Amino acid sequence: MTFKKTLVALGIGLAMTGAANAATYDLGEFSGISVIASTVTTAKGAFSDTWNFSLAGDSFTVGAVFDLPSLLGLHYNISSLSAQLFSSSGALVVDFDDCFLSSKDFKFSLGTLVADSYSLLVSGNATGWAGGRYELKMTAKQIAAPVPEPQTLLMMLSGLGLLGAVARRRRLG
């Protein structure tokens, strides 16, 4: 009976060894200029990390995820590194893997994002004897809404006034 329990415990332990690692990180709301740099170490095996953030306004963003293969003699490695950005509706916004600057160990994207909540999914397979290590770097700069100059407003109002005067003259004459 004890032998059976030991075998069952060993089987459960081996099954858990191959289980996927998953973590969720909340970066909060980005406004103005925001810079994020974070290094993550993951246990050996498949992983899928989610980075949640929101933008207070339309922003120009640059994001990069890259494999860090070693640290102080420890062997880290990630195969099949992948990164995708999803909107709050779950729609795929950016697939970092498709960017022309991306490689198997480096994922990169840049562009303008509208104010919304986003989830960045970073996944891969940690194959180093110490697991895997990657770094996420992201910069977001909020784009200021254009404000018309006073001269522009004056010109617009003058033009509307002239159009009104022409329309009135045609109606009377």
Automatic annotation (TrEMBL):
Domain Ice-binding protein C-terminal, first and last residues per copy: 146-171
Signal peptide coordinates: 1-22
Keywords: Signal
Keyword rRNA processing in record: no
The UniProt record lists the keyword Lipoprotein: no
Protein name in UniProt: Ice-binding protein C-terminal domain-containing protein
